[in-house]
Design brief:
This protein has 74 residues and is mostly helical. The chain has 2 helices and no strands.
Length: 74
């Protein structure tokens, strides 16, 4: 019988690699969010593209976070 915490820090778990990607996406989210002015009043194409980019990066970050956490449905 293996101890309960031994599998958590094992190198053969497939979800260990996703935390590196999650960290990279968190840095990208913070960087992109700080560069794009989300409160701008102009309706230019560049501003719309910036808002879409922020939304996509944050959405992907949240999906990777859920996948890396190995949470299950109730």
């Amino acid at each position: 019988m293996t101890p309960p915490g031994s599998r958590l820090f094992s190198d053969d778990t497939k979800n260990l690699d996703r935390f590196g990607l999650l960290l990279l996406l968190c840095f990208a989210s913070v960087t992109i969010s700080s560069l794009i002015d989300l409160n701008a009043t102009d309706q230019s194409a560049a501003n719309a593209l910036g808002r879409i980019t922020v939304s996509v990066v944050l959405g992907v970050t949240m999906m990777v976070a859920v996948g890396a956490s190995t949470s299950r449905r109730w």
